[in-house]
Amino acid sequence: MLLFIGPLGTTEIIFIVLIILLLFGGKKIPELMRGLGKGIREFNDAKSNVKKEIEDGLSEKENMNKTTSAQNSQTTHTSTQQ
Hints:
This protein is mainly α. Helix content is 88%, strand content 0%. It has one helix spanning 10-81.
């Protein structure tokens, strides 16, 4: 098992970059980075959509509560006058 202790140093980063370059080659790396960028973009879009849906649901619930409260207060006010 490989134990990873401490932050990466410059030597380790250079070593990792060289291994990636040897494994994938210079032509494949831009394609990999493009794919990674698209994946991150899609993830952020999905995260934004979920956040927006939750906020919309909460605001819709608050509007329903305000409407219900207003209707209840009108009903109470009308029945008090009769």
